[in-house]
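User: Second chain of the day. Same drill as before.
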Amino acid sequence: MEAKTAPRSSLLRPERIQRFLAFGGLIALIVVFSLASQYFLKPDNIGGIFLATAVNGVLALGVTFVIINGGIDLSVGTVMTFSAVMTAQFITIWQMPVPVGILAGLLTGALCGLANGLMVTKMKVPPFVATLGMLYITKGLSLVVSQLKPIYFNDTPIFNQVAMGSVLGDLARVVIGVFDPSNPMVLEPLANPTIVDPIKNIVLVFFGAAIIAAFILGKTILGRYTFAMGSNVEATRLSGVNVDRWQTAIYTLCGLFAGLAGVIIGARLNSAQPALGAGYELDAIAAAVIGGTSLSGGEGSILGTVIGAFVISVLANGLRILSVPQEWQIVVTGTILVLAVYLDRRRKK
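Assistant: Same format as last time:
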């Protein structure tokens, strides 16, 4: 009997190599910036990194599904802005309850994603063109609905307070209050709960969304079809799968994540800024690609995207602390993106 070849170790699978490289790059960036500046590891700065990652990371989660599927979505940044504007419209202008406004923001993003999916599947518009058109549509609608000016949540401070509060910090204070102050062995790890405060609630929302996205991608039929269509859409179609329906669902899911990002950024800024959003889609795509998602489709992971989102945030934050000009920050980010794509191509070969 012919001997079987031993299976390749799961740690050495080609699709995981770039993820390991991204994680190693993240650690290297943290070490370099920590040595270069004493302010990098300050709690306030760490909190800023987490806040920036929460917004870009949620956008990148949705983009990951689309790219694995073999498509692209250039509209997530402006869909995020439009969702924030609609959230503010419901809560501030129309005086609706906060949960209704949040639901409106999520549905706005999902509807925009649905429109993208229908343009790609039913109208046969290339994804690049369809989502570029949606970019302009939602950018214009944001300006129309807001009447060219920001909408503030001043009448509903709880919206900002809940989002920018820290459940972990509050829990630390409760634990400190429960334990006997005379026992330093117990209290020492929690003696300064402000260290926990930078982990705001919207950061926890991001991690929760990442867990849900990982479950959908890895454990559901939508996730299996996402990989299948990205690997070979015609073979998937010939196997009896309704490709149009599932691709529309993927774009709708991407829009839903963009809507969530809109709610998050609105709560973080305590306002809906209609001119905001341009460029966010590029950071989201960069986070997914740096994390190992292949632009040719069929490969990617949520864990890699989360790592990539932190790489983008740490890099931008560290360069800003070192007083590197904004234009050079953009050059460095673009260079890293090109390098990530190059490594992906080399890995495939």
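Confidence is low (pLDDT under 50) at residues 1-9, 184-189.

User: Great, on to the next one.
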